[in-house]
Design brief:
alpha/beta; Aminopeptidase; Alpha-Beta Plaits; 2 domains; six-stranded mixed sheet; 16 helices; 19% strand; Peptidase_M20; Succinyl-diaminopimelate desuccinylase; Uncharacterised_RocB; Peptidase_M20A
Length: 548
C-alpha cells in the first residue's frame, strides 16, 4: 500500500533523489523538482486534489514545491515540513567523483578500501550501517522522510494537515526559501490554515571534531557577512610613504577580527564560533607599480540574540582599534625611515565610517541623481558578494577626498537567528522526546537552542526590532537591488520551529555519510511521534483557551 514507509523503500527513495546531481546553480537543480512532483503526483490524494501540489518558479528558472494534504476541508491545524534539495559541488571527491551521486556504489567502493579511509570513518563503518554520497545527510534524507510523512498523511495517519515545502539554493543565498515565505502566507490565507510548527529535518551537526552527541534543535543560528572596504592613498612603489597600502590596512583588520572571541555570544551552554575570514581581496584589476590603495576583507559572523545595532557598534570599535594601529605603525616606520633621508613624516588619520554614513555624505555633497546613478549602474550578473564590494568601492572612489578610510558594510546572505526554546509547546515536546528516546532506544539527546549548520528556518519569523533591521538594511548596498528579505511575511508567520533530523557525519566533505539504520528505523518512528504530539498539544492548548 505504501511506497515510502519501509526501511528498504526509504533507502531506495533516498538513492533516487541523490542520483539527481542538484548542485547549487546547476541545470540539475532546476530539474530536480520534476522528480519530486512526478513522485507525489502518483499519490491518489494529489490526483484528486491537483491544486494542492504546486511548483513555484524563481526568476532564474529554479523552483520550489509545496504539497498540502488536508485532513478534512475544515481542518486548520497544519505542520509545515521544510527541506532543501540543492547540494554543494563534488570536486573534493577526487578519484571518487564519478560515484559521488551513487550512494550504493560509493558505499560499496568505500567498504572495499575501508582501511585506507580516515580513522573516524573506519570507526563509524565498524559500528553502524553508513551510506555515503553527496546529499545523503545534507539533506536529501530529510526530504525523503518528509515525502514519506506526506504519503502517510494522504492515508489519514495524522490528526491534522501536513504541508511539505522543499526549496533550492539553501547552500548559497537561500533564494528558494526567501521566495517561499510569501507562498506560505498565501497558502495560510487561501486554505484557512493555522501553522502550529515549522519542522525541519536537517541532519545533526557536530559541535566539535569527533562530537558523537545527538541533538534536538529548537531553533537555528543566525549569520551575517560584515565587510571592511579599505581605501588608502595611491603612490608609486618608489615612494611608499607618500601613500598608504590598502592591503596592509586590510591585514590589520583581518588580524583584529579573525577568531576574535569578543564577537562570541553565549546562551545557556551554547556559544557561537568566533568570526573567520571568508573573502580577502586586493581590488586592483591589473599589475602596476602603483601601491594597492583599495582592498576588502569579509567575515563570517554567527549570531544568537545580539541586535544588528550592537553588531554594527562592535564592528566600529574593532575598525577604530585597527585604524589606530595602522596610524601608529605607519608613523613609527616613517620616523625610522626619515633618519636616513630628508623625508619629514606626516601623521595619517584613518577615518572609520559605515556604509550608511558615507552614503549620506555622498548624497549631501554630490546629490541623489549622481549617487543613485552610480549605484544603479552595476553588473547584475555578478555574485552578490562581488556586487556589494563593487558598490562600496564605487561610492568610496566618489568620496576619495575622505581617504584614507575604512568603510563598514554587510554583504548577503543574512540569516536571522531564530529559537523556540522558550516556547512552551516546543520546550515540553523536546523534553518528552528526550525522555522517550532514553527509555525506548537507550539514546541520549541534548536539546540545543540553535542548529549550528545554518538553515532556512531563519526565515519563518523575525525577532529583531525595526531599528535593528534598519542597521542591517542601511549598511547593505544591494538591499532592494537584487537582495532582500520578505520581512513583512516573516513577521506574519512567526511560527514555532523545530529541527529533528538524521545522524550524519562530514557535511560538505567527500566522506559525507548517513547512519542509515537510525534514519530509516529509529528516526521514522521519532518523526511520527513528534507529529502526533504536536497535533495533540495543539488540541490541548485550544481546549485551555476555550475553557478560559
Amino acid at each position: 500500500m505504501f511506497k515510502w514507509k519501509s526501511k528498504e523503500q526509504l533507502r531506495q527513495l533516498l538513492c533516487e533523489l541523490v542520483q539527481v546531481k542538484s548542485v547549487s546553480g546547476s541545470q540539475a537543480e532546476k530539474e530536480f523538482p520534476d522528480i519530486v512532483v512526478n513522485k507525489l503526483s502518483e499519490l491518489a490524494y494529489f490526483k484528486e486534489n491537483p491544486g494542492h501540489l504546486n511548483r513555484t518558479y524563481l526568476s532564474d528558472g529554479r523552483s520550489f514545491i509545496s504539497a498540502l494534504v488536508k485532513k478534512s476541508p475544515d481542518t486548520k491545524k497544519t505542520i509545515v515540513l521544510i527541506s532543501h534539495f540543492d547540494v554543494v559541488d563534488v570536486q573534493d571527491y577526487g578519484k571518487w567523483k564519478q560515484y559521488a551521486f551513487d550512494p550504493e556504489k560509493l558505499t560499496e567502493q568505500f567498504y572495499s578500501i575501508k582501511d585506507d579511509l580516515p580513522e573516524a570513518v573506519q570507526v563509524d563503518m565498524e559500528s553502524g550501517n553508513w551510506l555515503f554520497g553527496r546529499g545523503t545527510m545534507d539533506m536529501k534524507c530529510g526530504l525523503a522522510l518528509h515525502m514519506s510523512i506526506v504519503e502517510q498523511a494522504t492515508f489519514g495517519e495524522y490528526d491534522g494537515n501536513i504541508l511539505l515545502l522543499t526549496v533550492p539554493d539553501e547552500e548559497v543565498n537561500s533564494e528558494g526559501m526567501r521566495a517561499a515565505v510569501p507562498k506560505l502566507v498565501q497558502l495560510l490565507e487561501e486554505h484557512n490554515l493555522e501553522y502550529t510548527t515549522i519542522f525541519n529535518s536537517e541532519p545533526m551537526f557536530s559541535n566539535f571534531p569527533g562530537d558523537k552527541n545527538n541533538y534536538f534543535y529548537t531553533g537555528s543560528i543566525g549569520k551575517a557577512l560584515p565587510g571592511f572596504l579599505c581605501y588608502g592613498k595611491e603612490a608609486h612603489v618608489g615612494e611608499p610613504f607618500g601613500g598608504l597600502n590598502a592591503n596592509y590596512m586590510a591585514s590589520v583588520i583581518t588580524a583584529e577580527m579573525e577568531l576574535n572571541t569578543d564577537f562570541c555570544e553565549k546562551v545557556d551552554e551554547e556559544i557561537t564560533p568566533p568570526p573567520t575570514n571568508l573573502i580577502y581581496r586586493d581590488l586592483k584589476t591589473e599589475y602596476s607599480t602603483q601601491i594597492s590603495h583599495r582592498a576588502v576583507t569579509l567575515f563570517n559572523l554567527f549570531l544568537f540574540e545580539r541586535s544588528m545595532t550592537d553588531v554594527v557598534s562592535l564592528l566600529q570599535q574593532k575598525a577604530i582599534k585597527a585604524a589606530n594601529e595602522i596610524e601608529q605603525s605607519y608613523m613609527n616606520k616613517a620616523t625610522k625611515y626619515s633618519q636616513h633621508t630628508e623625508f619629514t613624516p606626516q601623521q595619517l588619520k584613518v577615518k572609520v565610517m559605515t556604509y550608511e554614513e558615507i552614503y549620506e555624505y555622498a548624497l549631501e555633497k554630490y546629490g541623489e541623481e549622481k549617487v543613485e546613478g552610480l549605484l544603479s549602474n552595476r553588473d547584475s550578473e555578478k555574485d552578490d558578494r562581488k556586487r556589494t564590494i563593487d558598490l562600496v568601492d564605487q561610492l568610496a572612489a566618489l568620496c576619495n577626498e575622505l581617504a584614507p578610510m575604512i568603510v563598514i558594510f554587510f554583504a548577503p546572505p543574512f540569516y536571522p537567528a531564530i529559537s523556540s526554546g522558550k516556547n512552551g509547546l516546543i520546550s515540553n515536546l523536546v523534553n518528552e522526546l528526550k525522555q522517550y528516546t532514553h527509555e525506548t532506544f537507550n539514546m541520549e539527546f541534548t536539546i540545543q537552542n540553535y542548529f549550528a549548520g545554518i538553515s532556512d528556518l531563519s526565515y519563518v519569523g523575525l525577532n529583531y526590532e525595526n531599528s535593528s533591521i534598519a542597521s542591517l538594511i542601511n549598511n547593505m548596498p544591494v538591499w532592494d537591488k537584487g537582495y532582500s528579505l520578505p520581512i513583512g511575511d516573516m513577521k506574519k508567520l512567526n511560527v514555532p520551529v523545530l529541527n529533528i533530523g538524521p545522524v550524519g557525519r562530514d557535511p560538505h566533505k567527500w566522506t559525507e555519510r548517513l547512519d542509515a539504520d537510525f534514519a530509516f528505523e529509529t528516526l521514522v518512528g521519532l518523526l511520527d511521534l513528534t507529529i502526533e504530539k504536536l497535533f495533540a498539544a495543539h488540541y490541548e492548548v485550544n481546549e485551555q483557551i476555550v475553557s478560559k
